Structure formats: C-alpha cells, structure tokens
C-alpha cells in the first residue's frame, strides 16, 4: 500500500494505492489520524483510485475516521473507487453515509 | 497448504486461491468475491483465532470440483463461543472492524458453514458455484 497526503485550502487529500487489508490497516489508520490531527479544520478527500482490493479491515478504518470527522462537524468524501472496490463499499453500507464520487472534481464540489 | 498467522499471509492466501480459481469458469467479479471471502476468513483466524499472535497455524484447502470451488480455512486458535452471534452483521469484538467478515463470506459465496469449538479452533467451509 502507498499513501500520499496533500493539504490544500480546507481539504486534506489522501491518495491510497495497492491492497487495503489487515496487513496495512494500522498504518492506513495512523496516517489518516495524523493528517486529520495536523489539520483539525479540514475535510477529508479519500482518493481510492489506486486501490485494487479492499476488505472489512480497510473499510473499518474508513468508517472509524468518518465517525471521528462527523463528531467535529467535518465532511468526508471518497473519489475514484474502481467498480470492484465500489461494490464492496456499497455492500458494506458505507455508500449510504459517505459520498462516493467517480472523479476528484465531483467529490471536491461536494466539499465546497 | 499451511501457513503461519502473520498478516503477510492474508495476501498469500488470496493469491493462492485466486490462481486456483482463475482456472475455473469464474467471472472477474466472482474471482474478486472469492478473494474478499478468503481474506476475511484468514483475517478472522489471525485477529480473533490467534489474537494476532504470529505463531499460530492456518490451514487452507482448495478443491475444484465440476460444479463448485470448495475452500476450507481452519485454525487451532481460541474458537468462537457463539457462532450464531458472531455471524450477525453488526457483531464485532473490535470497533475498528465492522463486523462484516462473515457477512461478506455469506454474500460472496454460495455456501458457508462455520464450525467452532472454544479452545480448539474454527473451521470455515465455503463453496462457490462454477458456471457450466
């Protein structure tokens, strides 16, 4: 798994690539938490376009961050999920509570 | 095949099953579903069965029959007290996990049977239908 963190305006963008399973879940969580702590007023854009596999370990990290963000009145959106990943997001129920958009610009328009 | 309960082996199990399943008439979607189900079963064995201890043994068996693919994941870990409860969608002993492991196994496979005995371990038996 590779992670790229970028901050601009009031948006923290985290781009993830590779496989999101239990092996990398802890590092994924730590990177997200660190970024969100460093930018306490920012919303989160999670770019999943490079993710080729996700299971409940990866989903758990995403849901956990979402719960933290809504407590602070912040917003989280997901962009670029491949069909195979989007299917898992859908089945997990995450798509009912977190906005999932095909492109980054679609996702960003929801944050502005 | 048998491997130890280290996180690296979750991906190894997925790759092994996928390479075997790819020889069958499975669609790409089916193949992805099998990979998720195996990932969940092996992750459960490591996280819950062996409580993340790397010294446990996990046995993975894959059999390809004419009409279905059979996958068995077995550990000798602490077992599950109440299998029925563990299989409920929102049940999770860890707030960072979603309690979706068994839900995914159930949704993505055509057959799921879980046998567990506290102190003895857990056996997860899954079937995926192959198209003719």
From TrEMBL, chain A:
Top-level division of the source organism's lineage: Bacteria
GO MF, any single term: anti-sigma factor antagonist activity
Question: What residue range is the signal peptide?
Answer: none
Q: Which InterPro entries match?
A: Anti-sigma_ant (IPR003658), STAS_dom (IPR002645), STAS_dom_sf (IPR036513)
STAS domain: residues covered: 1-111
Q: Which Pfam families match?
A: STAS
Q: Which family does it belong to?
A: Belongs to the anti-sigma-factor antagonist family.
Q: What is this protein called?
A: Anti-sigma factor antagonist
């Amino acid at each position: 798994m590779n992670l790229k963190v970028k901050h601009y305006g009031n948006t923290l963008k985290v781009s993830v690539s590779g496989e999101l399973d239990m092996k990398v879940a802890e590092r994924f969580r730590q990177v997200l938490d660190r970024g969100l702590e460093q930018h306490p007023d920012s919303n989160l854009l999670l770019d999943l376009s490079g993710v080729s596999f996700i299971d409940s370990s990866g989903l758990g990290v995403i849901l956990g961050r979402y719960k933290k963000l809504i407590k602070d009145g912040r917003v989280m959106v997901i962009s670029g999920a491949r069909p195979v990943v989007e299917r898992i997001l859908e089945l997990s129920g995450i798509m009912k509570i977190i906005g999932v958009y095909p492109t980054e610009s679609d996702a960003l328009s929801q944050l502005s | 095949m048998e491997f130890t309960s280290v996180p690296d082996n979750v991906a190894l199990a997925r790759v092994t099953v996928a390479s075997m399943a790819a020889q069958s008439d499975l669609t790409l979607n089916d193949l992805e579903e099998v990979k998720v189900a195996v990932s969940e079963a092996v992750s459960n064995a490591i996280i819950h069965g062996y409580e993340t201890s790397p010294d446990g043994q996990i046995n993975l068996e894959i059999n390809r029959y004419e009409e279905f693919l059979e996958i068995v994941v077995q550990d000798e870990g602490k077992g599950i007290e109440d299998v029925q409860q563990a299989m409920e969608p929102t049940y999770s002993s860890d707030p960072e996990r979603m309690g979706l492991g068994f839900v995914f196994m159930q949704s993505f496979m055509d057959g799921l049977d879980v046998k567990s005995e506290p102190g003895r371990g857990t056996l997860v038996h899954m079937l995926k239908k192959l198209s003719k």
